[in-house]
Write a structure and sequence with these properties.
single chain; alpha/beta; Arc Repressor Mutant, subunit A; Rossmann fold; 7-stranded parallel sheet; 23 helices; 30 strands; 33% helix; binds adenosine-5'-diphosphate; binds zinc ion
């Protein structure tokens, strides 16, 4: 037998190696192996086993790494699809399906010395007083880690070794699993009695599971290679349920059904909503009873060791449920019965570096490959998914009312132009919002205030000479951070001390002015307006240590904080019973982005933020402050009217042939010499026109400078391609990338279905 291996160095090629007899039983498709390559040794993944090779004198595999092959053939097939559809080399696609900690050889199980009572009969030998003390502890515990024993007894290792010499105990290394949630106390929960909407949704999901398991395995890999997978999914559901409609309960009971059928489940949650609260809801339901199983958690805040252990719990089949962020879609759950993508509209499901995959779309493809039901859930579905419903590709499940019969919060839009005429300077708090906060403080209820911009002021300007502090590396202005007394770039991280006078040598005006508003300033203004209120801020600046996030949320939950100010970090998933007021400081911030999805994003954000209010017994109230209060995105969000927003927004997308009407491929060229980047982009366009000539209906726009024209010292130009047949365009683009000749110092990135157009 010969193994075909893709190497972890990007070469867009596979290599054949002989399998030496002593490794024959251990090499399989998906095995990770060490092989000779030139004078080096490199690692790779076996992608196929073949009888013959066109090459002679094959070199042999040196070593198989790990006891179990890390990539299952199913996940391997998925990686191939990603390579094809997202135009990236197979090695890069493969790399993303395995966490680093599993791929790298050095991370392993953590072993700890364990002390156990040895089987012995007869009299206890003579022991010193100290030895007797230690022995008593061991006898009581029967087995415990050496570290724990030393803690409990205050003894030294020496004393324990003496007991070993006397054959009373054994000391041996044992695997001790790292459990990131070991310190959480989790109380088991039972299924809730469902309301009619929930029951109907669950019924349809379960019926589909039955249907699919009947025809499992008939999926055609060839068809997927040609990209039909994304065009004709038969299995996905879109669960459109308002915040608080009880989507999680539907997920939990659907998972329970999968477990009953002997299948596992993957639950994707945006990184930002993957809070201990969320994880606990899943762990609690499956922590006991006949469906008891481990729930593995995969996300970027785990240590490499924790991730290694979580992943192997899944691979070994001990954890049947996985909850995680984007990359958890590759978790080796087998057999897989159900994939849930919660908050499916979230942009963080898209990976912003190669492979630039969208985990929601990968979920749909994986579901189809493995005969698993896919449920995409959201209170504000993406236009892409809702369009798929309209075209009959996805089935719609609707839950328009709150499960606990709580009313939707009242949303009041405040016209900040009018406030501007009343107050001097640019207003931060309208009179109405101030009044509402005062009431909450009096009633000992809590408030959340939201502004999607961190820092203190967003720019530093000199009114005299017109100077604006800009980043030397990027085409953006610097943000003033008062706590640090620094001007910082939010793109590249550059920072500089904040000046007291205009830095222009000819000007030196001391009356230099900070303009624009960030969360830090909202917090400071609150402290002035409400000196007795307990205010905390939650944004990425405020979170310095690993557990800050949990600590702040904990304090908010236990009522130690009256007002929580934050960025989108507080917009998602959190619910606190005592929050009766939510304020959005400037709702228009996200409206004026150079992105065709700006309106959609604003609608989603406002709806999500509003959903944080009134989760308890008291009805919630939301104030949305805006300078363009009549913008449709704001007005439809005020009325909780997704369908209305969809109709209106689709007209605009249709006119301009933007997604979901078409699909987009974004080509970004970047380099340090602007002229060269521009010329290369023009050359690329000409070459593209030639190589896409055979495809019908591809619109090419550009080249033009990217909205973020310069980032981290690189100038950036873009070409935008629109088509209704992305799989064909992907294929053509792959060939284009392989053949087009570009200067060495200009880099080309291809992003299929981009969500970030900057
Ligand atoms: P969503 O995820 O749709 O925003 P959740 O799943 O968080 O909503 O549910 C909102 C609240 O309603 C939770 O406190 C949940 O425990 C409760 N809930 C869900 N389903 C039911 C039900 N059938 N009966 C009573 N309460 C429910
Ligand atoms: Zn910068």
């Amino acid at each position: 037998m010969i193994a075909r291996v893709t190497l972890e160095i990007a070469l867009r090629k596979e290599f054949d190696y002989a399998i030496p007899p002593e490794l024959a039983s251990r090499v399989e498709v998906g095995s990770r192996v060490k092989v000779p390559f030139g004078p080096r040794q490199v690692t790779g993944i076996v992608t196929a086993l073949v009888e013959e090779s066109t090459h002679t004198n094959l070199r042999s595999i040196l070593k198989v790494i790990g006891a179990q092959s890390p990539v299952t053939p199913k996940v391997l097939r998925l990686a191939r699809w990603i390579g094809d559809y997202y135009c990236c080399a197979p090695e890069i696609a493969l790399k993303s399906v395995l966490p680093d900690s599993v791929r790298k050889e050095k991370e392993g199980w953590r072993e700890r010395l364990h002390v156990r009572v040895a089987p012995f009969t007869g009299e206890l030998p003579k022991l010193t007083k100290r030895q007797v003390e230690v022995w008593n502890i061991i006898e009581e515990w029967r087995e415990l880690s050496l570290t724990r024993l030393l803690e409990l007894s205050g003894a030294t290792t020496e004393t324990v070794r003496k007991l070993e010499d006397k054959n009373l105990v054994t000391i041996a290394p044992e695997i001790s699993e790292r459990d990131p949630y070991a310190l959480e106390q989790i109380l088991p929960t039972q299924s809730l009695e469902m309301n009619a909407e929930q029951a109907l949704a669950l019924e349809k999901i379960i019926a589909k599971m039955g249907e699919l398991s009947a025809e499992r395995g008939t999926w055609n890999a060839e068809a997927a290679a040609q990209g039909s997978a994304l065009r004709t999914p038969r299995s996905a559901f879109l669960l459109h349920g308002v915040t608080g409609s009880g989507k999680t309960e539907v997920y939990l009971q659907a998972i329970a059904h999968a477990l009953e059928q002997g299948q596992g489940a993957i639950v994707l949650v945006p990184e930002i909503s993957l809070t201990p609260q969320t994880v606990e809801r899943f762990k609690a339901r499956f922590s006991s009873g006949k469906l008891q199983t481990l729930v593995a958690v995969l996300h970027s805040h785990l240590s490499a060791g924790e991730r290694h252990d979580e992943w192997h719990k899944i691979r070994q089949g001990r954890a049947r449920i996985v909850i995680g962020a984007r990359s958890a879609i590759f978790a080796p759950v087998d057999p897989l019965g159900l994939i849930i993508v919660d908050e499916e509209h979230e942009h963080s499901y898209k990976q912003e570096e190669a492979p630039r995959y969208h985990a929601r779309d990968v979920a749909v493809v994986r579901g189809q490959m493995e005969g698993a039901v896919v449920v995409l859930g959201s209170a504000t579905p993406s236009l892409e998914s809702f369009y798929n419903v309209k075209k009959g590709k996805y089935a719609l499940l609707e839950m328009p009312t709150r499960a606990d019969h709580k009313k939707m919060p009242v949303v009041r839009v405040v016209d900040m132009r009018a406030e501007g005429r009343k107050q001097k300077g640019t207003p931060i708090f309208s009179e109405q919002l101030k009044e509402a906060i005062t009431q909450r403080l009096e009633r000992r209820e809590q408030t959340m205030l939201f502004l999607n911009r961190r820092g203190y002021s967003t720019s530093l300007q000199c009114p005299k000479c017109g100077y604006v502090a800009e980043c030397p590396n990027c085409s953006v202005s610097l943000t003033y951070h008062r706590a640090k007394q620094k001007l910082c770039c939010h793109i590249c991280g550059h920072d500089a001390p904040a000046p007291n006078v205009c830095p222009d040598v000819k000007c030196r005006n001391p009356a230099i002015r900070y303009a624009g508003l960030g969360t830090e300033k909202v917090e400071a203004t609150l402290a002035k307006l409400f000196p007795h209120a307990r205010v905390s801020r939650m944004d990425s600046d405020a979170l310095k240590r690993k557990d800050d996030f949990r600590r702040i949320l904990g304090d908010f939950k236990t009522g130690k904080i009256d007002i929580l100010v934050g960025t989108q970090m507080i917009a998602k998933g959190l619910h606190f019973e005592n929050v009766t007021l939510v304020g959005v400081i400037y709702a228009d911030l996200s409206l004026h982005m150079p992105d065709f999805r700006a309106g959609e994003r604003t609608f989603q954000l406002l709806t999500q933020v509003a959903g944080r209010a009134g989760r308890g017994d008291v009805e919630g109230e939301v104030f949305v402050q805006a300078f363009t209060p009549f913008h449709p995105a704001i007005q439809f969000a005020r009325r909780h009217d997704f369908a209305g927003f969809y109709e209106q927004e689709m007209e605009f997308r249709e006119q301009l042939q933007y997604p979901p009407i078409s699909r987009v491929a974004l080509l970004t060229l970047k380099g340090r010499n602007e002229e060269k980047v521009r010329l290369t982009a023009e050359h690329a366009r000409r070459e593209l026109e030639k190589s896409l000539a055979a495809l019908r209906e591809v619109l090419i726009a550009g080249p033009a400078p990217a909205p973020l024209a310069r980032a981290e010292t690189f100038y950036r130009y873009q070409l935008m391609l629109r088509t209704r047949q992305m799989p064909k365009l992907s294929q053509a683009l792959t060939r284009f990338v392989e053949t087009v000749s570009l200067p060495e110092d200009v880099n080309l990135a291809v992003d299929i279905d981009p969500v970030n157009l900057s």
